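Workshop exercise sheet. Pairs work together: one partner reads the sequence aloud, the other fills in the structure field after running the prediction. Swap roles for the next sheet.
Pair: D.N. / O.F.
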Amino acid sequence: MAFKLGYSTYALQMVDPFEAVDLISDTGYEAIEICMGEAWPTSPLKFSASQQRELASKIKDSGFDSPIFFGGIDVCAPHAERMQMFDLTKQKFQMANEIHFDDSPVLITTTAGHSAPPWDSGKEQIRDAFVSLADMAAENNAIIAIEPHAGTDFETPEKAAWMMAQTRHPNLKLDLDISHFFVEGSEVRHSVNLTAPDAVMVHIKDGEKVDGKVQYCLPGDGNIDIVEFLSSLRDNAVETLPVFAEVSVQQSLAEGYSPEETAKFCFTALDSARKSLG
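Structure field:
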């Protein structure tokens, strides 16, 4: 079957959420991700329950399935900040359930967060923090999708596979964001082979490391072979998961950024790749 393509409102921080749905639909995408980060208009701190219900109706009426969610949770928050993190996370779970409207699982992705300790000395702490979050997700009818992240100590497919083997929690899975693995030097097919068995969502942007610093770019504007990526997903039987284009804030907050043109660029690159694959 053909891959569905999705787009995240992570790229649309400056766009009204309801207009963002139209933009994503009009561009041709078939799936949508809602960003719940605190700096976005759809943070539960500022997006009311009535707005959430209205957005759910808008998404459904636009022909989309229930969205997935970008949670942006500081999973390893220190003790002094942990209750505040849990309170905000509960609001994100509630919002995700409010907007969800079909029988698909409620999926929320997050990195380990800025408070994560160094991997070598703290991987068990990261593991335990994710298990605690997964327990909370289970109580709220949700699944957490871990996103390893380039430029951090939790950045390789091997570490992602270790985390899954160590936890084996039904409410804890992976966000297969190929860009982070690729930027850190892992081959596309190798990364997919290791992480696909535990993946519940798929993201792609592109980028490279320059003088040790991560520089992201749009999918189709870098060196990731998108056809090979889609082929690897197909070979690992995860073709049913939509492939979401994601745009880094390195692009979306830059002067002259065009939300419409960026969405079109990403769609054209991904659509061309899926048509080439057949």
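Discussion prompt: The mean pLDDT is 96. What would you look at next?
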